[in-house]
Amino acid sequence: MSPLFAHLHDWVWLVPGLPLIAVVINGARVLLGHAQGDAAEPLTARLSSLAAFGGLLLMLAIDAMALSQGAPGHRVLGHWFGSGNWAATLSFMLDPLSLTLATLTALIGWLVVRFSANYLHREAGFHRFFIGLAFFLAGIQLVLLAGNGLLAFVGWEMCGVSSFLLIGYAWHRPVATGNALFAFITNRGGDAGFLLGLGLAAAWLGGFEWTALANANQISVVNDRLLVIGFVIAALAKSAQLPFSAWISRALEGPTPSSAIFYGAVMVHAGVYLMLRLEPLLVQVPDVMFGLAVVGALTAIYAWLCGLVQTDVKSALIFATLFQVSLMFVAIGLGWTTLALVHLCLHAGWRLWQFLVAPSWLVLTRQRPAPPPAWLRNNVLLYTVAVQRFWLDKLTQTLLVEPTVAFSRDLRGLEEHFIDHAIGQPGQGKAVHHERPLVVADGLPGRLLASASDTLQHIEYRLLLRGKGGTAEKLLHRAGAYLRTLENLLEQPRYLMMAVMATFVVIL
Questions:
Q1: pTM to 2 decimals?
Q2: Half-sphere exposure in the Cβ direction for 425 (13 Å, CA)
Q3: Across the strands, what pairs with 94?
Q4: pLDDT averaged over 10-residue windows placed end to end, the chain, 508 residues
Q5: Parallel, antiparallel or unpaired: strands 86-94 and 73-83
Q6: How far apart are CA 23 and CA 13, in angstroms?
Q7: What domains appear along the chain, each with residue ranges and CATH number?
Q8: Cα–Cα dist 445/448, whole Å
Q9: β pairing state of 430-433 and 436-441
C-alpha cells in the first residue's frame, strides 16, 4: 500500500475542511461583487457540490480502509491549546459509529446541495443559502468526527449559527426572523448544558477526549451523574425533546432543502449521536438512562397528538420526525443503542426524501391529507390540547424568549442612555465651542481631550501666534541681548587670554 493510502485517515480533517473552503471562496466572491445574477449561480453551486462530493469520496475511502484493516479509532493530529494540567487537541474519532454517520451525512449533504441548485434558482438569497449550507456541513461533520468534546462543541455551535441564518433566510419577513430568534434562544439552553459537561470534564478528568469520558469510572457516582446531565440537556435541546420541543415547528421558515437536511435528516439527530457517543458514561448512571427513556416517551406522545391535527405537509413531517427521534431516545434509555443507530440511519434517508418532495406532495399523491381520527375530534379537550400543541410554544415564548429579548432590550437602553453618553460614540460628536465648529467631541474622554486641546491651543496662541510684541518675542529678544553681551565680553583681549589660560590649566 502506498504511503498516501496508508495515512489516509490523517486527512479526515478535510471532510469538514472542504465545505469551509467553499464558504470562504463563495463568501469572498459575494463581498467582491463577483457573485451576482443568474450567471454566477452555477459556480457557487458547483463549488459547494465539489466540496460535499469531495468529503463523501474521502469518507468512502476511509470506510474501505477501515473494512480491510480495522477502524483507526481515536486519532490525534495536533495540539490546539492547553492550560495547566489539561490540553485541547485536534483529534478525530474514526470508529464504526462516527464513520457510519459521517458517511451518511456526507451523502445526504451532497444530495441536498445538488437538489438546491435547481430549487433555489433565481432566488435573491441563492449565494447566501449555499454559504450557510456549506457552513452547516462543516459543523455537523466536525460534531460527528471530533475526537473530543471541545472540538465537537465548535461544530455544535457552527450548526446552531447556520440554522439561525437559514431559518431567517427570508430576513425581510418578521415571522421568519422571529422564529429564527425563537429557535436560537431555545437552543442556547442546550449549549449551556454542553458547556457544563465540558467544564466538569476538564475539572474532574483533566481533558475533553471522548476516550477519557468513556472511562470516567474513576470519579464518584454523584460527579458522574452531574457530568452526564450536562450532555443530556444538550442532546435534548438539539433534538427538540421536551421541554425544548417548541422550537422545531418554528424552524420550518427556511427553504425546503434546509428543512430536509436540518430537521428531517441530520441536525435533529445530533442529540441522538451525542448520547450514542457517551454510551459508556450513560450506563454508569441507570437513573439518568431511565429519565432519558421517560422524556423520549413523553415527547413521542406530544409529537403523535400534535401531528394528527396538522394541515400542512411540512408541519406533519416535522412532528413525524420528532416522534421517530423520541423513539430513538427511548431505545437509548433502555440500552438498545444498536437499534437506535439503525433506526437513525433508516429514518434519516426516508425523511430526507419526504421533505424534498414535500412541495409536490399533493401532486404526487393526488389526494388531500386525512382528517384527524374521530376519537380525537370528538374529544374536545384533547383536540384543543393537540391543536394548541400543549401550549408549549406560548410557555417557551413567555418563560424564555420574552425575558431574553427584554434583557437584551434593557442592555441596549443602558448602552444608549448611559454608556454612550459616558464614553461617546464614533461619529456622533458635537462642537465644543460654537466659534470653532471643527473641534468636535462626544463622551467624557472626548470632552477631556477637547479641553486639553483647547488649553494647548491657548498656550500656543499666547506664546507663539500672538504677533509682534507677544510674550515669546519679548523673551527671545531679552535672551538675545544677554547672549550679545556675553559675546562682546569674550571678544575683549583680557577675557580671551583668561580663556586660553584656563584651557591650559585643564589640559595640564
A1: 0.82
A2: 10
A3: 73
A4: 67 95 95 87 94 96 91 87 76 94 96 93 90 96 94 95 91 88 90 92 84 75 85 95 91 88 90 94 91 96 94 90 96 95 95 89 74 88 90 86 82 73 64 63 71 74 59 73 75 68 69
A5: antiparallel
A6: 16
A7: 1-147 (1.20.120), 172-402 (no CATH), 442-507 (no CATH)
A8: 5
A9: antiparallel
